[in-house]
Amino acid sequence: MTPFKRLKAGVLAVSIAVSGAFFTAPDNAVQAAEKLTIGNMGEPASLDPHFISGVWESRIVGNMFLGLTTEAADGSIVPGAAESWTVSDDGLVYTFTLRDHTWSDGKPVTANDFYYAFQRILAPETASGYSYLLYTIKNAQKVNTGKAGPKALGVKVIDDKTLEVSLEGPAPYFVAQLVHYTAYPIPSHKVKELGKEWAKNKGAVSNGAYTLEEWTPNAQIRLIKNPKFYDADNVSINELIFYPQEDRSAVLKRVRAGEVDIQTDFASSDLKWLEKNMPEYIRIAPYLGVYYYPLNTSDEVLKDPRVRKALAMSIDREILTDKVLRTGEVPAYGFVPPGTGTYGQPSEVNWKTLSKEERIAEAQQLM
């Protein structure tokens, strides 16, 4: 899930709001390691940024590619593949100047690689699941839905190092959107050579800190440090190994055996045992996301907004977060999690302050 995910009407926003839990090896062990092993839950459907949708995939792809902007350790937006950019006075035109850097095969990364990527992900035939995140760009929605041709897209190559992007309207958050994998560059020369197979094994070239060395389905994905990465001198770990194992109890055993350094998730039922026996391995860190239930509003009953509101009011979010999940989740009463950068105070439902009994009584009246 992402901060920009479209949400349907009639959603029961329950949790998660701002936390995630995982295992990690002690800091000194990670810093000294030549490699880092990671329990990554799911098997990726792809490593092509245009055909992924899961967090487990983005963890891998995010180590392989670098968008125009990226995030600093504190979450602030900093230059990525673009060393700088300017914004027109009306906030509609962004002009990016690319830094000198190359793909992992030595080919220069150019503005055309970003132009090609935007055109490809928004092409209707690509059918990319998250293409709508780029609808901020002028005519992106029209291109994506087949109502306009690709040349109408508000992305222009000025020269090899300069990319111009025009927006539908002023969007101060646009540079933050560009951190998402939907805005990563794509090596057009490799796609033209290998087609959809370009993102598999050593055929996958990348412009980020790591490049793909091996992908053994349902076993492991191995990334190695990209010597062509522009900031390679500051990449301290030479190898990342991702294990796609969804059985969290099985991964816990591998953590205890020293086979896995980091596990990205653990069962809430294991929390007390972990706090007692492995407290140094637990990190409960902020995570921006919302757990929700979409409802079928074409259903004869659920199409009534009073019914949907009653269902939403009947969910005891505090019980779920405090008694069931127990890893720092915050009850969600709106779609935008608290702490979302530069957003201000998120709007919430007006019945949040009612007691449990008052909510039930009002819900019954609605039904």
Automatic annotation (TrEMBL):
Q: What is this protein called?
A: Solute-binding protein family 5 domain-containing protein
**One term of GO molecular function:** peptide transmembrane transporter activity
- What are the GO BP annotations of this UniProt entry? peptide transport
Which CDD domains did the record assign?
PBP2_OppA
Where would you find this protein in the cell? Cell envelope
Q: Which family does it belong to?
A: Belongs to the bacterial solute-binding protein 5 family.
For this protein, the record's InterPro entries field holds:
SBP_5 (IPR039424), SBP_5_dom (IPR000914)
Q: Which organism is it from?
A: Capitella teleta (Polychaete worm)
Domain Solute-binding protein family, by residue range, is: 77-366
The keyword Transport is assigned to this record: yes
Print the keywords alphabetically.
Signal, Transport
* Broad class of where this protein is predominantly found: other
Supply the Pfam families for this chain.
SBP_bac_5
- Signal among the record's keywords? yes
Q: Which lineage?
A: Eukaryota, Metazoa, Spiralia, Lophotrochozoa, Annelida
Residues in the signal sequence:
1-21
